[in-house]
Amino acid sequence: MMDSVSAAETTRPVLPDSLELAALLCSRVCHDLISPVGAIVNGLEVLDDSKNSDDREFALNLIRKSAKTASAKLQFCRLAFGAAGSAGAQIDTGDAEAMARGFLEDEKTKITWTLARTLQPKNRVKLLLNMLILAQQAIPRGGTLTVEAVGEGEDAGLRVTAAGLNARVPQNLADLLAGTHGGNIDAHAVQPHYTRLLAQACRLGATMAAAGDTVAVTAVAA
User: d(Cα 200, Cα 216) in Å, to the nearest integer?
Assistant: First the structure.
């Protein structure tokens, strides 16, 4: 009996404590910012080294585009992962929509936002933004992310539906979001794990499942 208990304990996944979770989320944010910041540095190096007008114009365009991208990512990450106000603060969903579009929309991916503009509890807005990140991973070739409420009133749930070519649930992501994955939480798993924690804080249960040719990330009352 003791041997079987010991074996079960050794195979139990190790969940990150508060310090490790903070470190994993910081790594997640840094991963998003490395590319545009690196491009800005490269553009500045071209400006320093080249006198060719075409090269300098190319560098300036690269800096402008990369700075805009970095700013959009920082604003989104501040709201999705940061404190975003004091405890109990409320956030305008219109601001959340603008940040989501700046972070996720491009020539391949578009957002259809059907939520009315209201003030919502901070964690609820953070949950929605993290659900959008997960849903985007279901359409690697691009498509449409539709944001909607599930039900009405203060107890309404949230749903983000991803529709696109070959939409699919990424490996292990649904289990990580539901808390049924047996592995440890590392940098690759922290996104769905953090989303699950936010859902729990909002007294909701989060799931990710395929539905026909779409994938839905849903948070509703458990």
Answer: 18
Residue 103 CB-density burial (10 A; 0-12 exposed, 13-18 middle, 19+ buried): buried
Distance CA 215, CA 135 (A): 7
Calculate the average pLDDT of the chain: 88
Closest CA to 186 of 9, 1, 2, 23: 23
pLDDT at 6 over 50: no
Q: Report pLDDT for 5.
A: 42
What are the φ/ψ torsions at residue 215 (nearest 5 degrees)?
-130, 130
The total number of structural domains in the chain stands at: 1
pLDDT band for position 9 (cuts 50, 70, 90): very low
- The residue segments making up the domain with residue 32 are 2-220
Query: In the chain, which ranges are continuous DSSP H helix?
Result: 2-11, 18-49, 53-81, 93-104, 122-136, 173-178, 190-201
Q: Looking at this protein, which amino acid is placed at residue 161?
A: T
Is 76 exposed, middle or buried (CB count within 10 Å of its CB: 0-12, 13-18, 19+)?
Answer: buried
pLDDT digit string (tens) for 139-191? 999 999 999 999 887 778 999 999 999 899 998 899 999 888 877 888 788 89
Contact residues for 67 (Cβ-Cβ < 8 A; gap 6+): 36, 40
- CATH (domain of 27): 3.30.565.10
d(CA 143, CA 65): 22
CB 84 within 8 A of CB 67: no
pTM: 0.86
